[in-house]
Specification:
4 strands; 24% strand; two-stranded antiparallel ribbon; globular; 91 residues
């Protein structure tokens, strides 16, 4: 299973090896960038909206979309959930 995490600016501070292998990327290529800069999504506005909503209300999101992986368009399902710090603030 591919796993990634993002900061409040929607940039990747990290991702697991499966995610990196799926997209044919390295961790240094991903860190500090967002989906849009990496050109990962066919319709990035859909993912942008759900991520902004998640940051605003903290409600998990499950969605389907199309991504670009190694030169191919693929259907994906994403489950996004907030991560909280010890003060129960959205991390």
């Amino acid at each position: 299973m591919s796993v990634f995490w993002k900061d409040r600016q929607r940039n990747f501070p990290g991702a697991n090896q499966h995610f990196l292998d799926y997209y044919g990327l390295t961790l240094p290529e991903v860190i500090g960038h967002n989906d849009d800069e990496l050109g990962l999504n066919v319709h990035p506005e859909n993912f942008q909206e759900s991520e902004i909503q998640l940051l605003e209300d903290g409600v998990p999101v499950k969605e389907r979309g199309k991504t670009r992986s190694r030169g191919r368009i693929r259907e994906i399902m994403i489950l996004k959930a907030p991560v909280y710090d010890q003060d129960q603030s959205l991390a």
